[in-house]
Write a structure and sequence with these properties.
By secondary structure, the protein is an alpha+beta fold. Helices cover about 45% and strands about 10% of the residues.
C-alpha cells in the first residue's frame, strides 16, 4: 500500500490516509493478520496514527486485561523485531486504558504487565521447558515494577491463572503455531526517544529532580533497534540538555516550556528529543578523534549517541552524572522466562525508579553482576556446533556481546 510508506510531517495531512488504512487493516481488506502488526509496529508518526485509528475498532470497556489482550491477539499476529512487537503492544495498552480509565495501573505499568504476560505465555507453551514458571516466581519477577511499587497481588494471581489455564494462541497465516517469545520483554520504548512512542507516561517536570544542565552537541550513531543511524540523521546538533531523574531532555535552547502537562511535553518532544537513562552507560569516546571532549552514551535498548562538551571537566561531569543516575535510580532487570534458552533475548530493563536504599541497590546489582559473570563464563565454554545456520551463530555472538557489555 502506497500510503503506508509515507511519513508526512503534518499530522493533519496524515489523518485521512491513516484512517483509510486502519479501516482496511481491521477488515483484512487485502491484508492478513501479520500485515497488521507490520504496519502498527513501524516507528513513524503516520504509523502511530494508523495504530490509534485501528485500535478505535476495539471496545475493551469492562473487560479484564487478559480478556482484552486475548481479543486483540485474535486479530493481530505479533511478528517482527523486538521494538516492532513492543510498539504494537503499546497501542493495545493505550487503548485498554482509554476504555478503562479507572484501571489501577498507569501506561508504563500496564505495558510492563502485558510484556510479562507474554513472557509467561512463552514459558508455559514452550515444549522445551520441563519446569514452568510458578505463580510466586511470576509475582517476584514483577516486584517494584509498578511505577516503583508492587503490582496488586490479586491482579497478578488472576492474570497468571488465566494465561496458564488458557494460553494466548497466535498463528501465522499458513496455520502453523507462532510462539510468542520473550523478545517482547525488551523494553525498547522505555529508553527510546519519548517522541517515538507517544503512549508511555511522561512525568510532570516539577516532580523530577534535576541533576545537571547545559549546552552539548549530540550525534546519533545507533538507533534503538541496534542498526546504524541513517546518514541524514547522523549530523552533530546543539541542544540545551537537562538530566532529570532518569530522563535526558534535549531542548533547542534554554527556553524550557513552563507548561508541564502531558500534552505539552509530548508536543515539545516531537520537535526535540528525550532519552531515558535507566540502565544507560556513558564513557569517554577515546576512539573518536574528529572532535575533543566527546563521550559516548549507550542506552539499554542498544541505541548509541556521541556528546561533545565544552572542555574535559565538563565531559567528565556529564559522564559521572549519567552513570550515577543510572546506577542509583534504575530498577533491577526483570529475569527472563525459566526456559528461555532456545534463543537469546535481552532482559526487560524496567524504566521505573527503584525504591531500594543505596545499600540495597548496591547489593542487588552485585547479585546481578555475579549472575551475569557466571552466565558469561558458561557461554564462553559453549561452542556453536559446526555447520550451524547463520542465525544461530549470530545469536551466540550477540549474547556474548551483551554479557560482556553488562
Amino acid at each position: 500500500t502506497t500510503s503506508s510508506s509515507k511519513n508526512p510531517t503534518s499530522k493533519d495531512a496524515d489523518f485521512p490516509s491513516a484512517k483509510r488504512l486502519a479501516k482496511r487493516l481491521y477488515k483484512l481488506d487485502g491484508f492478513n493478520k501479520t500485515d497488521v502488526a507490520k504496519h502498527l509496529g513501524k516507528k513513524d508518526s503516520f504509523s502511530n496514527l494508523v495504530g490509534q485509528e485501528y485500535l478505535k475498532n476495539f471496545d475493551f470497556r469492562s473487560q479484564k486485561l487478559d480478556e482484552a489482550l486475548r481479543v486483540f491477539l485474535g486479530r493481530v499476529t505479533l511478528v517482527g523485531e523486538t521494538q516492532e512487537r513492543e510498539r504494537v503492544l503499546a497501542h493495545f495498552s493505550h487503548r485498554f486504558l482509554q476504555c478503562n480509565p479507572d484501571f489501577v495501573l498507569s501506561d508504563d505499568s500496564c505495558h510492563t504487565l502485558i510484556c510479562a504476560m507474554m513472557l509467561l505465555n512463552t514459558d508455559h507453551c514452550s515444549q522445551m521447558v520441563s519446569r514452568k514458571m510458578t505463580q510466586e516466581e511470576f509475582i517476584d519477577n514483577l516486584s517494584s515494577l509498578n511505577d516503583g511499587m508492587d503490582f496488586p497481588r490479586e491482579l497478578l494471581k488472576q492474570v497468571y491463572t488465566s494465561v496458564c489455564k488458557n494460553p494466548f494462541e497466535c498463528y501465522i497465516e499458513d496455520g502453523s503455531h507462532l510462539l510468542l517469545d520473550e523478545s517482547v520483554m525488551t523494553s525498547s520504548t522505555a529508553a527510546a526517544p519519548i517522541g517515538a512512542n507517544p503512549f508511555l507516561h511522561v512525568p510532570d517536570l516539577k516532580l523530577l529532580k534535576e541533576f545537571r544542565r547545559g549546552y552539548v552537541m549530540r550525534k546519533c550513531c545507533m538507533d534503538s533497534d541496534g542498526h546504524k543511524t541513517s546518514m541524514g540523521r547522523r549530523g552533530w546538533r546543539m541542544y540545551y540538555a537537562t538530566i532529570r531523574d532518569t530522563f535526558l531532555f534535549l531542548y533547542k535552547d534554554e527556553h524550557i516550556p513552563k507548561r508541564t502537562d502531558h500534552s505539552s511535553l509530548q508536543d515539545h518532544h516531537h520537535s526535540s528529543n528525550a532519552v531515558r537513562l535507566h540502565h544507560a552507560y556513558a564513557e569517554k569516546a577515546d576512539d573518536y578523534h574528529k572532535k575533543q571532549h566527546v563521550f559516548r552514551l549507550y542506552t539499554c535498548d542498544s541505541a548509541q549517541f556521541l556528546f561533545q562538551t565544552s572542555d574535559a571537566s565538563e565531559c567528565k561531569a556529564w559522564m559521572t552524572t549519567i552513570n550515577l543516575v543510572a546506577a542509583t535510580l534504575s530498577s533491577a532487570p526483570l529475569p527472563g522466562a525459566v526456559g528461555s534458552q532456545k534463543k537469546f533475548q535481552r532482559p526487560l530493563m524496567p524504566c521505573s525508579v527503584t525504591k531500594l536504599s543505596l545499600p540495597e541497590q548496591l547489593k542487588k546489582f552485585q547479585q546481578v553482576l555475579s549472575t551475569v559473570s557466571e552466565e558469561l563464563a558458561v557461554h564462553k565454554q559453549s561452542e556453536v556446533p559446526k555447520g550451524s545456520k547463520t542465525n544461530v551463530i549470530s545469536d551466540h555472538e550477540e549474547k556474548q556481546r551483551f554479557l560482556e557489555f553488562e
